[in-house]
UniProtKB/TrEMBL annotation:
<dbReference type="InterPro" id="IPR016032">
    <property type="entry name" value="Sig_transdc_resp-reg_C-effctor"/>
</dbReference>
<feature type="domain" description="Response regulatory">
    <location>
        <begin position="26"/>
        <end position="147"/>
    </location>
</feature>
<dbReference type="GO" id="GO:0006355">
    <property type="term" value="P:regulation of DNA-templated transcription"/>
</dbReference>
<dbReference type="Pfam" id="PF00072">
    <property type="entry name" value="Response_reg"/>
</dbReference>
<dbReference type="InterPro" id="IPR036388">
    <property type="entry name" value="WH-like_DNA-bd_sf"/>
</dbReference>
<dbReference type="Pfam" id="PF00486">
    <property type="entry name" value="Trans_reg_C"/>
</dbReference>
<dbReference type="InterPro" id="IPR011006">
    <property type="entry name" value="CheY-like_superfamily"/>
</dbReference>
<keyword id="KW-0902">Two-component regulatory system</keyword>
<dbReference type="GO" id="GO:0000976">
    <property type="term" value="F:transcription cis-regulatory region binding"/>
</dbReference>
<dbReference type="GO" id="GO:0000156">
    <property type="term" value="F:phosphorelay response regulator activity"/>
</dbReference>
<dbReference type="GO" id="GO:0005829">
    <property type="term" value="C:cytosol"/>
</dbReference>
<feature type="DNA-binding region" description="OmpR/PhoB-type">
    <location>
        <begin position="157"/>
        <end position="255"/>
    </location>
</feature>
<dbReference type="InterPro" id="IPR039420">
    <property type="entry name" value="WalR-like"/>
</dbReference>
<feature type="modified residue" description="4-aspartylphosphate">
    <location>
        <position position="82"/>
    </location>
</feature>
<keyword id="KW-0238">DNA-binding</keyword>
<dbReference type="InterPro" id="IPR001789">
    <property type="entry name" value="Sig_transdc_resp-reg_receiver"/>
</dbReference>
<dbReference type="InterPro" id="IPR001867">
    <property type="entry name" value="OmpR/PhoB-type_DNA-bd"/>
</dbReference>
Length: 255
């Protein structure tokens, strides 16, 4: 079996985005039908992706199995995988990649569209399943969704930090002086807004609109009550606040 660097053009085809389109992600397309392969690559290329197309199961494994990845081969953000392939079928490729711990998102393409076939494909490790014939618009949309989902899942938790306060918005978690504090949903939203715009002065009406919503019916003193509760959980001395400061005649400022 030849290495990917030694493959002839009949075995693997490398395509990159043309013109002013910026390449943002790399996708491997595994499809042995020339017409379908070329159409998929063209559709992905037009959306700004860089595609590497291969036509058999052994070649894709050379790129993506542990030995290949450790030898410095280019990494990919998505695998578009036909099931009916020469040498090794798509289901076995899925099983092997997942067994080896490879978490690359996999979109299966197959002419078999029964519920049993789809369930089997997902159970062996695929992330999505698209039945032939399909539109190129749907294919590209599914590719984009899988890449976005993977990026979100692997990206570090974005934290908001100010002095001794650290907020993890995705986890709805707040640490104050290294200790976790419990906030109500409104308190959490208030603090998130404050920490997202430090030093900005907010009027009571603006805070009501942002946190309670424009349809809120009630007294603006609701804001004052929640600010007091929030200070009690954040401040060392709530009567002399360090974080949430009152700006007389205007409203509140964080920091």
């Amino acid at each position: 079996m030849s290495s990917p660097h030694q493959m002839h053009t009949s075995e693997a085809f490398h395509y990159s985005a043309k013109g002013n389109i910026k390449v943002t992600n790399r996708i491997m397309v595994v499809e042995d039908e020339e017409l379908i392969k070329d159409m998929i690559v063209l559709a992905l290329e037009e959306e700004g992706y860089e595609a590497t197309a291969v036509t058999d199961g052994c070649t894709v494994l050379e790129y993506l199995t542990s030995s290949g990845s450790n030898s410095g081969e280019t990494t990919f953000d998505l695998l578009v995988l036909d099931l009916m392939l020469p040498q090794i079928n798509g289901l076995d490729i899925c099983r092997l990649l997942r067994y080896q711990g490879n978490s690359i998102p996999i979109l299966i393409l197959s002419a078999k569209g029964s519920e049993t076939d789809r369930v089997l494909g997902l159970e062996v490790g695929a992330d999505d399943y698209l039945t032939k014939p399909f539109s190129m618009r749907e294919l590209v949309a599914r590719c984009r969704a899988l890449i976005r989902r993977q990026r979100f899942a692997t990206s570090p938790e974005p934290a908001l930090e100010y002095k001794d306060i650290i907020m993890y918005p995705r986890e709805c978690r707040v640490l104050v002086r290294s200790k976790e504090v419990n906030l109500s949903p409104k308190e959490f939203r208030l603090l998130e807004l404050f920490m997202s715009y430090t030093r900005r002065v907010w009027s009571r009406e603006q805070l009501l609109d942002q946190v309670w919503g424009p349809d809120f019916v009630g007294d603006s003193k609701t804001v004052d009550v929640h600010i007091r509760w929030l200070r009690e959980k954040l401040e060392l001395d709530p009567s002399h606040p360090e974080y949430i400061v009152t700006i007389r005649g205007f409203g509140y400022r964080f920091g």
